[in-house]
Amino acid sequence: MNNHPLQLEPYKGVLRMLGGQFGDSCQSVLYSLEQDQDKLEGAVVSVSGTTTNANIGDPLPAFLETHIREKGMASQYGFINKAFPSLVLRTSLEFLRDEAGEVFGCICIHHNIVHIKMITSFLDELTRPNNLEDEDEESSAAGGEGRQYTASNIQGFLDNIISEFLEEHLEANNFAALDKNDKLDLIKELDRRGVFLVKGAVNLIAKRINVSKFSIYNYLDEIREQS
Q1: Which residue, 78, 121, 124, 227, has most beta carbons within 10 Å?
Q2: pLDDT of the residue at 207
């Protein structure tokens, strides 16, 4: 489909470098792109990291198609990507062009910043004068737009993420009824989403699925040994 496979090869090394630099909270995805008149085709060529479920050979994600349709082949850096509701992603897009100016690919970087948002919001609350409380209430009454994760709601935010995740993945089943591989997969997915980067998450999850926190740590150790 793509006429530029050799031009994409060097960028695979860039993805490996980004993964090594930023670790598990960051994912880089390399897409091939080819526009034939009004038809746009593309696919995942290389992936570093597991923040989203992108796999080699997958078609272009909806958020990237929307970006191209609305903004063209224009690179964009550091925007909050709302295409993944269970994650808080800061995303950057860089479109790759050949010497003739023809776009042949795109590098997408996703950084899961859920823990950073929580930490910065907590610090913001610690340094906030009390006379801003009324302003916060007005913001909430207006629909909560721009709402921050403060010390008073971090626990609730984390609990909501876990509740949605367990409802989606466990449905009517309980954790104890799963076989070991399924248990490991569930804990691995929570880890991928950055939940365990938040202080108190292990205890909260252990209570929700009715296991000891030491069991969670053992699962995490086993998952990271497999990586």
Answers
A1: 121
A2: 83
